[in-house]
Amino acid sequence: MTSEQEYIPPEGSMWPEMKFPDFPLSDTVRALHETIDEEWDFLQHSACQTAAGRALWEHVIHDPAAAVLAGERKLRSLHEKIRKDRLNNAREISGVIIAVRTLWFDSKIEDAINSFNGGESQVILLGAGMDARAYRLRCLKDAHIFEVDLPKLVQMKNSLLQAAFGSPNEQHQLKAVAKSLTRIAADIREDDWFEKLKRSGYVPHRNTVWVLEGILYYLSDLNAMQVLKTIASNCPFTCTIMLADFMNKSSTTLSNSSFHFYSDWPDHLLPSLGFTDVTLSQIGDPDADFGLMHDPLNLFNKLRRLPRSVQNYPDDGKPCCRLYLVKASGSPEKTIT
């Protein structure tokens, strides 16, 4: 039997060669991304970086808008990192965490929609960034989608999609799968974002999925807790499902100036706010693997084998940087009194 130190990946599970997207970026799209490169901050750039990961992992994600939303510079930078990782036989290849996280959210959104057993539902993407799920997830065909993000980002996203897919030629148009798609220019760090959401068509008594992917840890403790409490406050009125990723404390040290909010135990935090059912996964768990975590010695599988209370690796003392994928839900009949 092969030991972990002598690990040989199963046939067909080696990292595939990821081709640079061949979608032609127009001069207008390139000019828009030049503005992004020159004017946007780290948080806003992260939206394009996520899109680049989805574009280069197209063989598992199938996002038709990702390359346009990412921009050539982000695509080339990540593609070069992936190329070097493959040459070096890296255990974790660049972008894999984006791929697994995206697929986890995709699958949980579909599960949530199916759990409502028909009828209209709504999906709220807070800090939506360059997300294009409204165009690619068939499970959203009967759902009303609301994307909430900063005015600057909403405007740029609209401009990029119009420039790339606004052709009168129907063959080159990008059509939303969702029943409706509404973009809302609002800063979730401000107090008025929820009112703007309601004025834009959000119905508090309609079954709702809240998606907070790659956003909470950029917020201050105060802002993050306010957002979570606002979502939890809807549980007494209708079936509410929240999908979010949380960094632990050690992970925030990866960028001292950008990452703020953390929770080492989100499965303890969320019930205290009013969610009644909380499940937590780590990348590499059975529902967060997707055939991409095959090496037992990769970083994510090593983390999973350590108790969550362990703050540092026993072998080298380095901090254990974890990303938790969390599903929390509540409904009127289960409301905590």
Structure at a glance:
Keywords: Methyltransferase, Transferase. InterPro entries: Ppm1/Ppm2/Tcmp, SAM-dependent_MTases_sf, SAM_mthyl_Trfase_ML2640-like. The chain is built from 12 helices and 7 strands.
SS strand fraction: 5-15%
Round the mean pLDDT to the nearest integer and report it. 90
Secondary structure tally, helices = 12
Helix content: 25-40%
- Taking all Cα atoms into account, the compactness measure Rg is 20 Å
N/C terminus separation: 54 Å
Query: What structural class results from the helix and strand content?
Result: alpha/beta
Write up this protein:
Strands 3-2-1-4-5-7-6 form a seven-stranded mixed β-sheet, with helices on both faces. Residues 1-13 have low confidence and may be disordered. The termini are far apart. Helix 1 (27-39) packs antiparallel against helix 8 and helix 2 (42-56) crosses helix 5 (72-87). It is 37% helix and 14% strand. It contains twelve helices and seven strands. With 337 residues, the protein is an alpha/beta fold. Strand 1, helix 7 (133-136) and strand 2 (143-149) form a beta-alpha-beta unit. The protein is globular, with a radius of gyration of 20 Å. It has helices spanning 27-39, 42-56, 58-61, 66-70, 72-87, 96-115, 133-136, 151-165, 193-199, 221-232, 266-273, 299-305; strands at residues 121-126, 143-149, 180-185, 208-212, 240-247, 277-282, 323-330. This is S-adenosyl-L-methionine-dependent methyltransferase. One of its GO terms (molecular function) is methyltransferase activity. Keywords: Methyltransferase, Transferase. It comes from Stephania japonica. Belongs to the UPF0677 family.
